[in-house]
Description:
The chain is an alpha/beta fold. Helices cover 46% and strands 18% of the residues. The chain is built from 15 helices and 13 strands. It has a seven-stranded mixed beta sheet. It has a six-stranded mixed beta sheet with strand order 9-10-8-11-12-13, with helices on both faces.
Amino acid sequence: xVEHNRQKEMSVALTNDTICAISTPQGTGGIAxxxxxxxxxxxxxxKIWQGRKLGLAESHTAHLGxxxxxxxGSPLDQALATIFKAPHxxxxxxxxxxxxxxxxxxxxxxxxxxxxxxxRIAQPxxxxxxxxxxxxxxLAEAEAVADLIAxxxxxxxxxxxxxxxxxxxxxxxxLRSSLIDLGALLExxxxxxxxxxxxxSRQTLAAKTTDTIEILSRLKDSYANGSAxxxxxxxxxxxxPNAGKSTLLNTLxxxxxxxxxxxxxxxxxxxxxxxxxxxxxxxxxxxxxxRETDDKIEAIGIDRAMGKASTAAILILLIxxxxxxxxxxxxxxxxxHVIAVITKTDHGDSDAKTAAQLLAKELPCLKSRPIEISxxxxxxxxxxxxxxxxxxxxxxxxxxxxxxxxARHYAxxxxxxxxxxxxxxxxxxxxxxxxxxxxxxxxLTHLGIVTGAISSPDLLSAIFERFCIGK
Length: 471
């Protein structure tokens, strides 16, 4: 079945043409790389090349030469040509990568010369799609290529590398193999239902299914942390007006990102920026002060603040030590991590003890002691960033643990879990074997969708269109 779908995908995605594109970021730089892939890649490169004949070169070798325009023999640029011969290349096809100087003119002129000599400009993600069709990558690994390119932190990079090296794919393939074995036993039961033969009791089948359900449940549950770590942890700063939210944001960022004023209600909309702590990206979100107001514009800002707070990965609740007030808050038990911070401890009329007592009385759900800070003197700031870093470590996967980061994978795993749970329940409820077999086939289908063992042209187009051209 996997091979059948792979052959079908190859017929959809691959043609006999040769494609080219700029693989480095657009614009001027020291070096630009133009990638060529397809059956005629080396022959086309030789048409525009002065130097050692590339068709005679060994695979995985680099050669210095000059790119020329075959129409008049004029030189374009000195370049380095790197040769990868099929099937030992990223796409599984012949590939030539031309490293030229980063002039925008040189890049565009080289593309024009290549297209005039038999190349076609690649579509977004077409190189990676060809790699998938050639069996160089499965679909989950191909998506990891895009995640790796987009990674902006060490944590996001680790998650992408894990998926690219096949950790998720191997996990799911092992689960599929287990389910296929279960299906074989169930089919034998159906085939020999009129015989006095028992290949495996339903209790045995249920026991074998339990482990798979537990693994799928852990994978599904990992998505909340995995998605947040990949995109940056949404860290929402809330508190009453003038509690020091904007000052804290600016101090953490080391920049005057938000307007600071003694006038209540200055912040009327969310202000966002990113901060990297210990290799993890935090999306800091400053919000409007929480209070009762008749100002319609400020009320909109407060509604937005409550909305952001209710969906935060981390909530930083600020209490002004000079005027301790706990505003109306969303349900803190539904927010994964809440940090209470007592601010303005450098002020002469500060009363941090009273603020801490108020927090203990009004918010007994808080799991850690409040942090006392002064954003103006940086007192307590290290303790705050250390706690943020500790939370990121808690959320990160353990060594060898597989974590979901993609919404498509989450949906497929959820559907597989639903089908397999129905199968497990049906075993004990005496559901006929043919209905159970259907549930098992559905679970296998959903798992196969993640890796591309089961795929459709529309799905593949939607995935690879998100890639940049040249990858």
